[in-house]
Amino acid sequence: MNRRQPIYWIIACGLVAIGILTSIPHFIKARVIVEEAAGLVVEEKGHNEKAKKPVEAKPAFDAASWYASRGESPDTHGVLIETLDGKRVLASLNAAATFNPASLLKLATSLVALKKLGANYRFQTRVFLEGDVDGKKGAQSRLYVSSSDPTFGDAGASLIAKELKARGVDRLSEVVVSPEFCFNFDNSPEESADRLSKALKLGNPKISVATETGGQLILTVNSNPLSDILLYMNARSSNFMAEKIGSLIGGASGVQQFLVDELKLPESEVTISTVSGREHNRLSPRDLLTVIRALIEEAKRQGLEPSDIMAVASDDAGTLRRRLAGTGLEGAVVAKTGTLTHEVDGGMASLAGIVYTQDQGIIIFAIMDQGNRIWDNRQMEDQLLAEVVNSQARPQVVASPTPRRLLPGTKVEKQ
Fold it and tell me: Would you say 128 and 213 are in contact if contact means Cβ atoms under 8 Å apart?
């Protein structure tokens, strides 16, 4: 018998043991990768560490396979669709990965505006008159208009004209507006002043822009309440209006601080460059669902429904007017769109919001698609949402009998 044979056996066993031990991390990593793709593992970041949190059940809908079957790379898409209470995940793909939310960021701006200003907040336009308005001397009257109302337009001008007529003013020598004044969404104060002058029909006055006012305060025009303004902003996806509202709530830095401090979103995942969603911003689908939950809660606290500040798909005018047609979700989805051209992050098309159902309650969702094929991505968003919801719930229509009029002039008030 070879005396060295036991030694060989010991060495062989040792090598086998070492091989098994060194293979364990690779097996664990492979398993985690599979689970993450299937939505079985959720990453939670905090204190510079990553913790793995198991989800109770795998989503019934395989979003990764759905995109792959259409020749899409799953890495360029982010999806999270779940019930409002978070107990049931209907679909998940890259839920913790950050994408450019584009105009979905207006949902965060809406939330912060409601929190800081309140649903009944109204912009004010203050009107001053200088000069003697008796008889022919009325031609020497000078009108000062001070306003930062982004919605001021024909309805407000009509109230000013009626007030001037009641005071006997038939001509104006000059119309002076503040640097922030805009008329019918024209951001130029000079052009806005000219439009106002023509709407008043009181001669051909000189046009000026100044910070100072003069004369007597004769009228204050209150805008539509903030809830109506947010509905218009979100339905039309108005960057102009978002920036005007954002200036009152601390701008991009104020919104970012709110998301991190108040909603506890991971600071490393949140980048807010603009309150409108233009340029380079970052949020994950999971972050957006946190914003939507907070928006639903804040709206309820102030006596509002989500549809009071967000458009109803296939019903309200705006970017959702012709979305989801023929999917079975018409009138059951209250949402916001997001779009960026290929010049920013290669292009983005996104959709996020609420689906009302008869048997699953409120379902919330965020779908973020990166790439310059904007139209194709929009079509996929509608198809994906419809397939996920219709396969697991029964939609409930919440649309009004007739499409709503955005920013109704009847709500502009004279004070």
Answer: yes
Which token pair is 395? 């939609």
Condensed to tens digits (0 to 9), the pLDDT of residues 129-147 reads 998 655 455 567 899 999 9
End-to-end CA distance of the chain: 111
Distances (CA, A) of 313 to 108, 113, 164: 20, 23, 42
**Chain position carrying tokens 């079509």:** 379
Confidence label for 19 from pLDDT (cuts 50, 70 and 90): low
Residue-averaged pLDDT of the chain:
88
| Residue type (1 letter), 328 | G
Alpha helices (H) in 330-415, listed in sequence order: 374-392
| DSSP labels, 292-304 | HHHHHHHHHHTT-
Characterize the bridge pairing of strands 77-83 and 89-93: antiparallel
Half-sphere exposure of 403 (CA within 13 A, CB side): 15
DSSP conformation class of 48: T
pTM across the whole model: 0.84
Close Cβ partners of 309 (under 8 Å, ≥ 6 residues apart): 110, 114, 227, 230, 231, 234, 295, 299
Helix spans in 69-188 (H):
105-117, 154-166
CATH architecture type of domain 124-223: 3-Layer(bba) Sandwich (3.50)
Q: How far apart are CA 301 and CA 228, in angstroms?
A: 17
Helix pair angle (189-200, 154-166), 10° resolution: 50
* Interatomic CA distance for residues 193 and 9, integer angstroms: 96
Q: Hey, where are the domains in the chain? A: 63-119+226-407, 124-223
The pLDDT score that the predictor gives to residue 50 is 39
Q: Regarding beta strands 362-370 and 77-83, do their DSSP bridges make them parallel or antiparallel, or are they unpaired?
A: antiparallel
Topology adopted by domain 63-119+226-407: Beta-lactamase (3.40.710)
